[in-house]
Amino acid sequence: MITNTELEYKGDLYPSKIVSFMHDVDSVYFYTDNNVILKLTVLRDSLLRFRFTTKGYFSNDFSYAIDESHSHGYNRLVVNEEESYYQITTNKLICKIQKADLRASIYDLKGNVLLEDELGFHWEECYEFGGNIVKMSKASKDGECFYGLGDKATQMNLKGKRVENFATDQYAFQKEQEPLYKVVPFYIGLHNKQAYGIFFDNTFRTFFDFCHERRNVTSFWSDGGEMNYYFFYGPNMQDVVTSYTDLTGKPELPPLWALGYHQCKWSYYPESNVKEVAAKFRELQIPCDAIYLDIDYMEGFRCFTWNKEYFPDPKRMVSELAEDGFKTIVIIDPGIKIDKEYWVYKEALAKDYFCKRADGPYMKGKVWPGECNFPDYTNPEVREWWAGLFKELISDIGVKGVWNDMNEPAVMEVPNKTFPNDVRHNYDGNPCSHRKAHNIYGTQMARATYNGVKRFAYPKRPFIITRSAYSGAQRYTSSWTGDNVATWEHLWIANIQVQRMSISGMGFTGSDIGGFAEQPTGELYARWIQLGVFHPFCRTHSSGDHGNQEPWAFDEEVIDITRKFVNLRYQLLPYLYTMFWQYIEEGVPMLKPLVYYDQEDIQTHYRNDEFVFGNQILVCPILEPNALGRRMYILKGQWYNYWTNCLVKGGKEMWVDTKFDEIPIFVKAGSIIPKYPVQQYVGELEFDELTLDVYYKEGKEKSVVYEDGQDGYDYKKGRFSFVSFQLTGKEKELNIHVHKEGKYDTNYTKYKINFIGLPFEIKILEIDNEEVAFDAKSFKENQYLIVPKGFNVLHIIGE
């Protein structure tokens, strides 16, 4: 027996003392005597990047997550050497690096500790795969809370949890199950009313421990790659989320129809079944904008083909659906059937575009078509080829959107449900194994799909949806939370998942309404619809194996509730579209957990159920059967019950009565909520009036409405309308000041202004300082005014 002591298990290794440092523009390099280098980069006064290497040099700096189009800049960067540490100072932060061991501590300018290393950076040599298992541990304070990390089926506050990030096909997952479909290694810490964020940009399998193993220690680690993380300083959670979203990127505006209601099932076929479903929506007057075709529309599950028996003339069918307002969305999976007669397979084979095992052969795995090979979407040449495959679907047939599924990547009949670790990837010129590429495979597929759909849909906007995603995927695609289950527990999970995704940069997300697996009761489906219409992506989807899940699969009461709430979503489309505009322009999440909305109020720190839809609508779903009401937390301030118009004072938990056809919804006092008339699909009606629901408040409140052509790219050339309403209420007076930006002129010419909670009768009405006659009797009965669009000041004097 020969013992090689150099290969003995060494355990955790640590940086030793700093022997030199170098300041180079925005970065400071620290070198230790055991070959560790820390590169600390100041991207903004409140944004620092920490990058470590243990080999004396850095590999190529490349990330799929970072939005390279976003520029950075800081106002101040000073480096001072003290006796035991180096100090880096910006206009927002002080960072100290200990000379003895590279441990870092970060403070605000008042000297308050924001985050400090416990053991700090350490590593373990990984002899099985080569490279290091890289680790970081931070000290955590009593009372500290943690949020974020995207797609997690657990409590909003992650304190005491340990989670894993490895994109996994988890059919019928359960509460607390790890890991799930998406990987968003970003979290927000909140302590002493100050928020910070950490983004661990490492695409290997990663883990986060929030005081689970050790009470006052938070740690994160990965089984490969670099210790490379970003620190975001608030002090408000809003600042942290916006900064992270800026770093990883924002989408372009979707077409307005993509924010409508969508209907999906595994599977709608043949053509007669698709037409029957579409016709039933119109018959029942339940608005719907999109219908989805799952894998059975293909010939033997071969991507980019059509089953001619089920769909003999897809172009005609898609055109006929479009005439009735339905956009057709089709599924495309990554597995390409091994079939020498199949044109997509032949092209990829000829160009050597499939992923390969380490010893040469193509990666082979079983999915829906049978044995398949899989394109390497980390190769830019493959992404370009893949994009070109969408010409027939989009340009010729008229499909309006594409749905990427099974792209974790999922493989059947293997224990780990995915590719073996030895599969090799191009990784945009940075060759690697699947250990590194796994978590971004789905994102790069969605990216290639986005590029293709955008190319052939132009001048219209593309619509993509993906199941698997890594940080930054929001630049290309929307998403849904995967194969959930028709249970009340999953309704609870869906509520939290979409809130969490929203503050994790991926706002355009929803769940399968009603549950994908199993069969919901009518009551559960109705309650899920009532939640789902307040999610940015709104789609019913189900497995046909478990029965029907269209609204009419239940009784008349459920049909009526579905219609009522889908109608409400269509009325609120201008409000929702404005939310999306603020998301892409300012990085503001569309759904706001209570803690995001008011972190100063400690009562919000552990709330799961309630959320703010946009900026001014508080929603609390009903998550239990047989409920005639529930307790909920009303945020500080004054809020109107949407159904009764009763005004309540917040800052407390209270019982709210409800019915089967209602959930608790409250509107912030002072809000001006825009509404469209109900349409069966976006663009069905031309209307001459925008409704404004004005909720009286004694004080000031600002509301905004964004509109454009609802599709296309003219909005990027200034052809949009962004209207700000400044409401000022007094005891016997109400003023609304209006300011418009943008070159777009909406088709409607007037506002119908509904007044809610007005505490006086109108004596005088002035528009732009001129008194206007109005029908006092009619107003007293109906509480609304019709006024021409384009005024600057509406002044109401009461008596």
UniProtKB/TrEMBL annotation:
SUPFAM superfamilies reported for this sequence: (Trans)glycosidases, Galactose mutarotase-like, Glycosyl hydrolase domain
PROSITE patterns the UniProt entry points to: GLYCOSYL_HYDROL_F31_1
Domain called Glycosyl hydrolase family 31 C-terminal: residue spans: 587-673
InterPro entries: DUF5110 (IPR033403), Gal_mutarotase_sf_dom (IPR011013), GH (IPR017853), Glyco_hydro_31_AS (IPR030458), Glyco_hydro_31_C (IPR048395), Glyco_hydro_31_N_dom (IPR025887), Glyco_hydro_31_TIM (IPR000322), Glyco_hydro_b (IPR013780)
Alphabetized CDD domains for the sequence: GH31_glucosidase_II_MalA, GH31_N
DUF5110 domain residues: 689-757
Alphabetical UniProt keywords: Glycosidase, Hydrolase
Source species, domain of life: Bacteria
Domain (Glycoside hydrolase family 31 N-terminal) ranges: 38-209
Protein's name according to its UniProt entry: DUF4968 domain-containing protein
Species whose genome carries this gene: Flavobacterium sufflavum
